[in-house]
Structures are given as structure tokens and as C-alpha cells.
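re the bet — no i am not wrong, look at it urself. input seq straight from the record:
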Amino acid sequence: MASRRLAIAATAALIGTLGTAGCSASRGDSDSTSAVAGGAAPAGAGTAQRHTGRIGAPGIGDPDFPNDGNGGYDVGHYRLKIDYTPETKHLSGVAGIEAKATQDLERFNLDLSGFTVSRVTVNGAAARFARSADELIVTPARMISDKAAFTVEVTYAGEPKPVRDSSNLGTYGFIPTSDGAFVTCEPNGARTWFPGNDHPADKARYDFEVTVPEGVTALANGEMVGSPATSAGRTTYTWRETHPMASYLATVTMGRFELREGRTAAGIKNVAAVDPRYSGSLDNLYTLSGKITDYWSTVFGPYPFSSTGGVIDDFSAGYALENQTKPMYGGFTPGDDIIAHELAHQWFGDSMSIKRWKDLWLNEGFATYAEWLWSEHKGHASAEKIFRTHYSTSADAAMWKYAPGRAKPEDLFNDSVYTRGGMALQALRERIGDTAFFKLLKTWNAEHKYGYVTTEEFIALAERISGKQLDSLFEAWLFTPRKPTTW
């Protein structure tokens, strides 16, 4: 996510001064249900303790977000068929899910917020289902055996409702706009438009079939398959992301867009789209997205996906989000620092994903540091100079009281996660030297491409490549709630 939610302007102002242009316990197996298919309670209701070993947990196991994601299975592929009408804000959907059980399953959950579910099938047979808050509880006709592949299909409809968070998360998820929708889902807004396993620890491939009124463009992750097909005043767009993707990075943003398509100098497909209000920014978005993608490929390693680009929509989100292959800019023209940040996320956060939200600095600290590297590359302020400017702030500043290596669920996108996270990387660079540091960045990406990463793994790799003991450095910068004085 770009440079702190709701604080993009402040970040650009800071960089400008340096001479550069300017994301409770688990409910257990409770059976508090509503809207049960056929009026019956799900199989096993009231007997959760008896069947715990065969019931998928209602959370994936992230203690900070205990009800996000689900246990008992791993999703490999989503096939999402969406029909949306902006005038009525009505969405009809059919979600096909291909998964593999990680235990025997008599029952499992999917994350889904709102909507009326009319039908659920598992392996083609009708399944019983119930609702409990943002959980869709599914009971297959037959138990699914451990390690067995299975399919789920959910038919649902209604008006999508985005998440409106009163802390620093803002509004996210499926956000209806006058001409379509702005879809940015970090950290757990995918459930606002499709049922699934809504946590970055379960990545999957995606196919999107999106039908909208003629004249509206639908943009999703990956690349378009074929050409849009129009019939009876409605147009269907098909997109496919063949690389693993976290649910919060999935998008089906829709509206009246101006597009520019082509390839970067290195040959990567490049797609830029802007709302007509930002038509003057289209060429710059396209050109910068291509140049920055190609440059990061020389710094971080080969670009991990098949296309790059970006989208500017006319919704004042106050933030940008690194949607895989199509970063979203909500209601503003991004400077090259913000574009550099979001495209760095294609490596740090998208290709390599965190298993638990507490490690968010691995996404945001790295993308923030990428802004500083871009400034350095363009001959503006060096990363070292930007580091020193931040370090000059008073020891009483709020940033020093928040240890970024352990992101807090109630303040996930705190400035410290970004800025102190980036400063930790500069401190590391100064400690181990440029040769080892930039080898570390490439090795980190190469060894974890499309996979999952933790802070502990990064520290171990930094020590292996540098041959230095770095505990004190990371303890000072990531885990101590005060301004470092030695490291």
C-alpha cells in the first residue's frame, strides 16, 4: 500500500524537501447461524467438540486476525463470474473454487460479507450452508478426505458493502462508484465481493469473467483473455492471473476508462488506464510504470509477473494499493515516488507474501525503501540522506514508540511500519555494504518467488550472505519501541 493511508501528500512533501519528486480469540466451532438453506441447521450443529477433528477452523491461524481466512483446506484456483450494474449497485456472482483438503472435512467455512446465497455445491452435489457474521459455513453431502482435491461453487447476489474502518484503514473492499466500482481489498476486503479464503497465507490463481453495461470497462488482475464480447447491451470481459495471488490483491475495478497498452522497453506487457478526469495523466502513468518496472528488474531480480501498469480511478480513496499487475491510485495523479512504491510491491508483498500480518514491514518497509532507491537512481536525494532526515526527528516522535517488526492489528498501517521499516534496510545496507546488500535483495526474491516469507527468514538470509551477526541491528530497528542510538 502506498506511503501510508490518508498521508500520501505528506509523504510527497517530505521527499520534496530532499530534492526529489514527489496497507480476540477464534470463534471456534460455534453454530450461531442464520439463513440456513432449507431452514435446517448445519450437520454437526451443537456437537462441535465431538467433531473438531473434522471441522475446518473459522480462521486460518493468524492470532491478530483470528477470523480471517479459514482452516482445513488450501485453495488452488478461483473462477469468479461477476455480473454488476452500477446504476442499481446489484452484483450477481458465481464463485468456483478448486481446493485441496488439509484434513478430513465434514464442514468448512468460506469468508463472505453480505449477499444472499442461493446455492452451494461441493464436488457437484448440493451442500447445506449457513451464515454466521462474515462466515459461510458449508456442510458437504459427503465428508472430504484429507489431501483430497475438491470443488465448491457458490451462487450469490446482492449489493456489495465496502468495509468502513474508523482507524487508519479507511474504506476498502468493493466500493461502488457512479460509473462502476473501485476494488482495493487490503487487508481483508475480498469477502465484500466473493466467497473465499481471505488471508494472504492462502494464495491462488484466478480467472475472472466480468459482465457490465456496454460502455463500461472491467479491469482485473493478469491479462485479458480474448476480446470483450457484447450482447444485448452488456459486455463481458475475461481476465486471467496465472500466478499465485493473495486475496487482498484481487480486483475487478470497473468504470469508464481511457486505456493505453503496449510493452516496456524490456518487453513486459504494460496496461495503463485512467478515469477521463485524469486523461492528462495517462501517458505519464504508462511511461513511468514501464520505466520503473524495468529498473526494479535490475535491482530486485526478474519481474515476477506477465504484465505491469496501473489504474487511476475517480474515487478519493486517499491511498494507492499494489493490486497484483495493476496498482490502483484512488482519486489522485501519482508521482514517480508512489508509482515506484506500488511497483516495488510486485516483488515485496505480491510475489513474496507474508504469512501473518505482524510481518507487514516486509511489504511496506521494503516498498518505502524502494522510493528512496528510486530517488537515488534519479540523482535526487540519496537513500542515506533521506534516512538521516528521518533520523533527525526527536526521540519523542511517535514513530520511535512503535516497533515496526511487530505490526499491531489495531494500527496496522502506522507510519513506523513504513518509515522505520525502510530505515532498518538503510541501516543494514550501511552495516554490510552495497555488494552484500543488493545481493541480498535479489537472493531474497529468487529464493521466495511466489512463496511466503517471515522476518526471521529475512534476518537469517542477511546473516548468511553478509557473514555478520545482525541480531543487535534488527532488535534496535524492528523490535525496540524507542529511537535507536547504536546498532
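see?? The domain at 47-248 is CATH 2.60.40.1730 (Immunoglobulin-like). told u. also The radius of gyration is 23 Å. so pay up
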